[in-house]
Amino acid sequence: MNISCEIIKDLLPLYHDGVCSVDSTKAVEEHLEHCESCRDELRAMDSKLPIANRTENLAEAEAVKKLSKRWKKGMIKSVLKGAFFTLVTVIVVLLIIYLFIGIEIA
């Protein structure tokens, strides 16, 4: 069976993860016996990906965490302020009704 390297390279991630069909696995293995380039590609899948700028990424993540904490604190303050002003408004309205209209609250 003569399958092009491009097709095999499309199948290699599935083969590497062990999720190919039996026929695909057989085709990939037959191809790998004769193709050094595809064997190199398969070996490359075993190596870890390099993480560029790791310290910068960690610093950015820390900044996002701090921003998230500040945002949550701000949200809690806003909710408490809203609840306080709503309560004050209700009390003022009830006082006005009680004092000026004379309706008694049971």
Automatic annotation (TrEMBL):
The keyword Transmembrane applies. The chain crosses the membrane at residues 79-101. InterPro entries: Anti_sigma_zinc_sf (IPR041916), Znf_put (IPR027383). Keywords: Membrane, Transmembrane, Transmembrane helix. The keyword Disulfide bond does not apply. Residues 5-39 form the Putative zinc-finger domain. It comes from the Bacteria. Pfam families: zf-HC2. Belongs to the zinc-associated anti-sigma factor (ZAS) superfamily. Anti-sigma-W factor family. This is Anti-sigma-W factor RsiW. The gene is sigQ.
